[in-house]
Amino acid sequence: MPAHWITLLPWITAFAIAMAFLESAVVVYLRELYYPVEFRFPMAPIKRHIAITELLRELATLVMLLAPGALITPRRLERFAWFIYCFGVWDIFYYVFLKAVLDWPATLFDWDILFLVPVVWVGPVLAPCIVSAGLISIGLLVLHRRAEDPTFMLRRWEWGLLIASGSLLLYTFMEEPLAHILHSVSGDGPLTLPKPGHDALSGLRDYLPEHYNWAVFAGACVLAGVVLIRLMRRGSAPRVAFR
């Protein structure tokens, strides 16, 4: 890891913030089209080609967030660190810009549509903001450790905790909408793709989020927090060949 990584930080941060504004601008347009009064559940009907475009746009956003780290270093751990740092900054400033332009969310407990892959993710705004703060912290710590010692690596149990934490977080975001879709399908026969021009999210047409699993979310945060604390305290020791 180049010792000058910190000199790159302002540019990478500016890139992530600019991407956040682009993301928020798209959402401003979408809400003007689909939620002209205010954004609220249930979700408005959306045609299949629009849904596919949104899905591909989100995948393109992930590629763009991966690109800075890939250009800076060939080493996978640093690329991972730059990616999660960019993702965290991008996600937090996305809500900053929505608040500035639309005065939304009214509170951090307002529900939002977070992602569409592989199913719709939903959750209170506070949840992804906390996750993003953790991603920024872990990313910066890894970059700092690698600058101090190029042999620094995450241990297997640390990767295990991070993977478990991420899996639990995904569960909290997808649990309700997926259960709603499966329940809707079970009463209406086999699941079929909507025809072109039809509502692509018909399975969620009457979905109203009611409960966010804060207990599981807290458990996931504890697992990630253990790794964060260990990264702050321990020295470097090569354990896993993830470079």
Any overview of this molecule?
The protein has helices spanning 5-34, 48-72, 76-102, 126-148, 156-186, 214-233; strands spanning 111-115, 121-124. It has 243 residues and is mostly helical. A two-stranded antiparallel sheet has the order 1-2. A hairpin with a 5-residue loop joins strand 1 and strand 2. Helix 3 (76-102) packs antiparallel against helix 4 and helix 4 runs parallel beside helix 6. The chain is globular, with a radius of gyration of 20 Å. The N and C termini lie close together (10 Å). Mean pLDDT is 87; it is low at 189-198 and 236-243.
The largest sheet has its strands arranged as 1-2
Order of helices and strands: HHHEEHHH
Distance between the termini: 10 Å
Task: Tell me roughly what share of residues is in helical segments.
Answer: 55-70%
Strand content: under 5%
Which segments are poorly predicted (pLDDT under 50) over 5 or more consecutive residues?
A: 189-198, 236-243
Based on DSSP secondary structure assignment, what is the total number of beta strands? 2
Radius of gyration: 20 Å
**Overall pLDDT level:** 87
The general outline is globular
Number of helices: 6
Major sheet attributes: 2 strands, antiparallel
Secondary-structure-based class equals: mainly alpha
